Amino acid sequence: MLELPIPHTIEWLGDRARIINQLKLPHKLEFIEIRDWRRMAKAIKDMEIRGAPAIGVAAGYAMALAALSLKVEDLDEALKELNRVAEELKATRPTAVNLEWAVNRVLAKARTATDVEELKKLVVEEARAIQREDEECNLRIGEFGEKLLEDGDTVITICNAGSLATSYYGTATAPIYVAHSRGKRIRVLAMETRPYLQGARLTAWELSRAGIEVKLITDNSVGIILEKEKVDIAFVGADRVTRKGYVANKIGTYLLALACKEHDVPLYVAAPTSSIDMSISEPEEIEIERRSSEEVLYIGGYRIAPEGVEAIYYAFDITPPRLISGIITEKGIAYPPYTHSLRRIMEG
Ligand code: MRU
Fold first, then answer.
1. 249 CA to middle of ligand 1, Å?
2. Rounded to two decimals, what is the model's pTM?
3. Looking at residue 299, what DSSP letter applies?
4. Is the dihedral of CA 75, 78, 84, 87 positive or negative?
5. Are 126 and 347 in contact, with CB atoms under 8 Å apart?
6. pLDDT digits (tens, 9 = 90+) for 2-39
7. For residue 228, what are the domain limits?
8. Are 220 and 192 contained in the same domain?
9. Is there a contact between 146 and 175 (Cβ–Cβ < 8 Å)?
């Protein structure tokens, strides 16, 4: 197994979960132990843990914590309570489909229990399986994606679709980690990712810790960077992919994809099949999270716009399939037309 010098972003410790507090990075590596599902819901909402697959795993563990705290002996009562918890968890962050996917998967397992004790056991096991499988998906994405990288390549990426956003190797970063472990020299350009700065705070942190050359660029410099620098490929993550191949990902991904098209740089989306939502096809069907405009108006507690001025803040955007060269999943790479290739991957 490929080892990274990065602690797991989330771990199950038998009766509680432990997460890295991503709000403290890169200055402090701080862990939070979570024993209560409401605290986990808050950690997801406040982005102490973030990234689509990671919040799926976190929501699974929140369901486990809720199950372990059940005081009722009646199975129907227990299932009713878990359903209520599931609805609250799904409302924490709406765009990443992994979250509702994980919660529904745990719920479905809970429904197979014959009594409350068995329910507790099954729910914990299912949440742990989700994390284990996500880590395996990360590595398989890395194996498929690594073949797209040559020694000496420069990769551009946005936000953090890295180890911190998943169970271990990341999605967009997994091909880079695998290539690096095989001796390929890869340079990464990390877009800083206003307003939450996941690229600067998180991607630059984990890649540099892993010994990978990383340079930080401002989001608005992508045009000139693609014009002046040698950039070979773009890897981005996804929060939700529709069956036609529309990809919701961190705000700025669409602009990066447009710039890549203009400069003939292939843009690949790296995402596990748990990020693919075959129930929808059109971009309008994706709920785009709108967060507090304070996150745009303040940097490090300092207000950057005059009092009285508001911000418009979509946390994600949608990249159309015509701008995407391929979607790297744990089951292989889907190429256009996506309606066909994604169906084959999901059924395979
Ligand atoms: O708001 P965030 O930080 O949760 O957004 C994260 C992203 O947009 C990632 O690219 C996506 O979740 C994929 S993570 C492997």
1. 6
2. 0.97
3. E
4. negative
5. no
6. 999 999 999 999 999 999 999 999 999 999 999 999 99
7. 148-347
8. yes
9. yes
